[in-house]
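hey can u run this one w/ pyridoxal-5'-phosphate bound, need the structure tokens asap thx
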Amino acid sequence: MSEACCLCRPNQWNDWRWQFRNRLRTKEQIGAVIKLTPEEEEALSDPKFVVGITPYFASLMDPDDPNCPIRRQAVPLNLEALPSKVTMADPLNEEGLSPVPRLIHRYPDRVVLLATETCHAYCRHCTRRRRVGMVERAVTGEELGRAVKYIAAHPEIRDVLISGGDPLTLANMHLDRILAAVRAVPHVEIIRIGTRAPVTNPYRVTPELVAVLRRYHPLWINVQFNHPKEITEESARACTALVDAGIPVGNQSVLLRGINDSVAVQKKLVQELLKLRVRPYYLYQCDLAEGIDHFRTPVARGIEIIEGLRGHTSGLAVPTFVIDAPGGGGKVPVSPQYVISQSTEKVVLRTYDGKIVEYPEPQD
Ligand SMILES: *Cc1c(COP(=O)(O)O)cnc(C)c1O
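ok here u go:
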């Protein structure tokens, strides 16, 4: 590996800002750390695709295996340019559900606040790629003011999710300002942050950051681990620091073809997450965003995976498999069928290991 590749672990390796500043962004930089395939080379020559990979996340890539799960999440393929009849720029109609810039209000009692368009690493499967990374911008004071004004004017909003982009690309001071503004609204009960920093730049979770976050309890964090290979000493340390600060950490993973679309990989992933006290929350069917068609799996695969987990491992480890409804209807849970038949007398059920049992209904 050449010096230019940044993977030689200089002194600043553990400094999250150094990791962020030295994200690999070009074909030359990425070609210096992995042996590029023609499909990768072609995509990396296309200025349409926004690429950025922290040296840390890049160090997890297998230089010789084009199917490496980290590589497939971080390095584009020419398949991203393929036209598709079903994909959309904004598959969840987030722009249509945005009452003021940077706020998405889809459900009655909660909203998403888009804090920034920047990430530590740009996921190839990003559902928000119409805006994320396109311009690396963060919420301005004026935008934040408008968003908070909207939240304050809607007493039904009791849950605010700070997302992006990755909110943990912002400096502590900036994040503090956002959290303080949201927390100042009396009817906001809980705050959630969606971030991939523990996975893509775990050094971001510093004692100073944790000190900021714990001032805004009840605060929850959702991360996105998609493959057991992402669980390292560093990512484990980041999750432990958050959980030790009383922040419940959940995981939202995306079902990705050829990356994590098997019971074996998912089982290993969710069991490893429980060891870190990270609770598997959602498993997402891949959205219909432009350029990510090649990641989609049949819905049956997701059902099969849940079936392979439920009963076979800790109930705590089983996420809810959801399809985010195209057009913006919200997340729809999709489950294996355990109810074989249902009458006023009884329900006939199937157990996780295939036994048939009857449950008599109350008769009065
Ligand atoms: C996912 C999402 C939420 C949160 O949904 P939960 O099921 O409460 O986790 C809220 N708003 C929008 C727009 C979302 O996409």
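The radius of gyration is 21 Å. anyway lmk if its weird
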